[in-house]
Amino acid sequence: MSKVIKNGTIVTADLTYKADVLIEGGVITQIGPDLTGDEVLDATGCYVMPGGIDPHTHLEMPFMGTYSTDDFESGTRAALSGGTTMVVDFALPSPGQGLLDALQMWDNKSGRAACDYSFHMAVTWWGEQVFDEMETVVRDRGINTFKHFMAYKGALMVNDDELYASFNRLSELGGIAMVHAENGDVVAELSAKLLAAGNTGPEAHAYSRPPQVEGEATNRAIMIADMAGVPLYVVHTSCEDSHEAIRRARMQGKRVWGEPLIQHLTLDESEYFNADWDHAARRVMSPPFRNKQHQDSLWAGLQSGSLSVVATDHCAFTTEQKRYGVGDFTKIPNGTGGLEDRMPMLWTYGVNTGRLTMNEFVAVTSTNIAKILNCYPKKGAVLVGADADLVVWDPEKEKTITAESQVSAIDYNVFEGKHVKGLPRFTLTRGHVAVHDGEMRAQEGHGKFVKRAPNGSVNKALSSWKELTAPRPVERSGIPATGV
Ligand code: DUC
Ligand code: ZN
Ligand code: ZN
Ligand code: ZN
């Protein structure tokens, strides 16, 4: 049965024009005037855009002694309700666990997804098994992105020797390195010092992770990536210190991307200071919320193109889980939600304020990341042949965000009380109408895994540094017979 989206205005990362969209077998088969189909979806007054892609989620993730509460069922339903049609989650081996073993665990969980999804692989330790399995993950399993935690010392963190080894391996395989860039050694020192001085509350979490720890780690990751010759994607860029490093690297011709979160763009550090314990703890995430100057830097980055993608790092814990950290802020599970609010919040605070054009909105919520992750134009496009992952966006539809009305399974929402204008009329996942005017018709298990191929020779063109400093043996005479 075919469907046609009629009377809408198509908005892509580069074009805005009036046309209908015909969908058959889950893909777009025609774009043009006066199309007909078995079922008509009326898009009068709406924009027809590529569905959102959230490249940074942690669904049902084992972390800090518990599991994040939104799983692939509630998480992908939440995504669809807000116009997001694909999520990319992190398969996370525990230290010592094989990559393929971890991937099996994520395969099992993700069977319930209502929208399409992909995985990034995390490298949480280093050894021959990881080195070997990386090739299988890239070549056979369709995963070309590998995340490294430079923080969470004693748990997920990898050191510089491990980063350098992994980045080199990725360079060989055509993969992309990703980093959670915070200096984990310094965070551990600052945390211990704060606790020893009696600072046990959630605000101490922010003091333990100042912008400098992020700026330092981002710079270090960029330099190591450059030496290894691998493209680098910096997740959750939250501050000018990190953004500045990314901006400079891009100006130097390095393949480096930065990803601000909708939370960091719209919420600031006052959430930790002018509030009760639960309010502050519910907003504990790493990196923490920053001040307004850092926020301005992130918006400027989206406008100028030095930052490329808006994500959520959706990692939702209930209030009860957050209370594991009463008396010790280091035990508050790190993470906030945002999957269903990312698109309406960015539209409201970006497009409606004049900070972003509609085309820029599409670029940073969908098209840019589809290109970076090598799934464009299957995803992130309104083109004939692309998957019909679409959102019919009603710029006049409004609501106030509340935990009570949200899809996410937790008991609060960090955007509680925010008024948004701009919401989906329809969200389609491969042609299936999952949301119609707030009514959920998402189907558990509808989602499919999206395979992504490695990059070709592009990795080698990163910078000329490697060529210029390649080891050259020097022929010399007059070598002394003995050393000192
Ligand atoms: N930061 C969070 O806040 N939660 C999940 C992992 C991370 O890096
Ligand atoms: Zn992270
Ligand atoms: Zn994360
Ligand atoms: Zn279906």
UniProtKB/TrEMBL annotation:
The keyword Membrane does not apply. It is an enzyme of class 3 (hydrolase). Gene3D superfamilies: Metal-dependent hydrolases, Urease, subunit C, domain 1. Its EC number is 3.5.2.2. Residues 47-406 form the Amidohydrolase-related domain. The keyword Magnesium does not apply. Its cofactor is Zn(2+). Belongs to the metallo-dependent hydrolases superfamily. Hydantoinase/dihydropyrimidinase family. This is Dihydropyrimidinase. It comes from Loktanella gaetbuli.
